[in-house]
What we know:
Blueprint: E1 9-18, E2 29-38, E3 44-55, E4 58-72, E5 78-92, E6 111-125, E7 129-137, E8 160-167, E9 169-170, E10 175-186, E11 192-201, E12 205-213, E13 230-238, E14 243-252, E15 262-271
Antiparallel strand pairs: 1-2, 1-15, 2-3, 3-4, 4-5, 5-6, 6-7, 7-8, 8-10, 9-10, 10-11, 11-12, 12-13, 13-14, 14-15
Amino acid sequence: MTSSKKGESIAKAIYRKKLIGGDFEGDPQTQTVVIELPFKNEKMGLGFQIYNDVAGILKSTGGYGIYNYKIRFNDKLSLTMGVQAGVTNFRANFTSVQLIDPKDPNFGQNINKALPSVGTGINLTNNKWYLSVSVPQIIRNDLSILSNPNSKYNAATNRFMFGMFGYDFNVNKSIKLMPSVLAKVIENAPVAFDFNLKASFMDKFLLGGSWRTANDKFNEASSQTRLGDAFIAYTEVQLTPKIRFGYAYNISTAKGQYDSGSHEILISYKFKKEEESEVVDPRFR
């Protein structure tokens, strides 16, 4: 959902690169551009997102249109409902893989598909706390090589749901603490959680950290392949009234040599009215 405040149109560019150790080629990386356009009546907003994702032989390029509608119950409490829809071009270059068995039917044909995507979400918020639930991917798209009846596997995109709750504590006039919890529910996978804590200083500088974990029972079969456990450190700086810069580093706690962490960079530009305050609510970055 878009998240612009009154009178603010925001453009964001995000770049993320995951470092893979060993002899693997093609470190996963993602480039994303988001534009948020509010309506003057404060009740509606539009957004647009385009992205490009590369992970070895897998590539995805897509775009979404986003619409949200806000219901304000009083000066403090409001409910925002949103929907997004778009299409993703998914490519898998299976034939480029060097195989022990060159006749393996599972790698005999590449995939190049246009996949529809529809998502929705709601956000209940007041001046101290917020609660949100979203389902970014409702449609379960088939990724199988349909023309190859000898293939053993049926691949498909998984549906998933996010739930998040956060609360803002004002330590004093200059410092604000913002703990939050994010739950991620994915088909055929354990529920995962992010426990986050951010500190905002004079609404100009933000410092935070997260601990990402998954269901330990799912990982008992192998201590070498823990699912998603990681620590994340991040910071954001309001460089000018209109430009904000952010950086995050993610390091996995999994044992093994094939995950050297990831780096993420954010740059946002705010097209705001001159009479508006420079204060940015970090909850709505």
